[in-house]
């Protein structure tokens, strides 16, 4: 079981009030987590990754075990602590401005 924490605007869109728990078949990677998330909550398609390229949207970051994984390859295996649900996979809305 993978725990996913989403920013408030995406939780609102998906009608969630807490983190998401997903079951992943095979190895846990960014791609498999996001694929499972978009399958379970189709209204999130295109909000985290672009429809055409599947690249992370600007102003969203991925954090794993307190580290920024936004630029890791999508098929890089996630740490065991995330794959077992001990630590969450976090999607964070980035701040911008001056």
Task: Please provide a written account of the structure.
- This protein is an alpha+beta fold.
- The protein has a single domain (2-93), classed as Beta-grasp domain (Ubiquitin-like (UB roll)), CATH 3.10.20.
- It has helices spanning 8-13, 30-40, 80-83, and strands spanning 2-5, 20-22, 60-64, 67-68, 89-93.
- Strands 2-1-5-3-4 form a five-stranded mixed sheet, with helices on one face.
- It is globular and about 35 Å long.
- The model has no long low-confidence stretch (mean pLDDT 94).
What would CATH call the architecture? Roll
Name the CATH class.
Answer: Alpha Beta
Structural class label: alpha+beta
Shape: globular
Number of domains: 1
Number of helices: 3
Assembly state of the chains shown: single chain
What's the overall average pLDDT, rounded? 94
In short:
This protein has 98 residues and is of the alpha+beta class. The protein has helices at residues 8-13, 30-40, 80-83; strands at residues 2-5, 20-22, 60-64, 67-68, 89-93.
């Amino acid at each position: 079981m993978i725990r996913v924490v989403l920013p408030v605007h995406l939780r609102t869109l998906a009608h969630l009030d807490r983190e998401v728990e997903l079951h992943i078949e095979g190895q846990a990677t960014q791609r498999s987590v996001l694929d499972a998330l978009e399958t379970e909550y189709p209204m999130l398609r295109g909000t985290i990754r672009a429809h055409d390229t599947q690249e992370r949207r600007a102003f969203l970051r991925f954090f794993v075990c307190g580290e920024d994984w936004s630029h890791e390859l999508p098929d890089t295996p996630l740490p065991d602590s995330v794959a077992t649900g001990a630590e969450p996979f976090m999607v964070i809305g980035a701040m911008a401005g001056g």
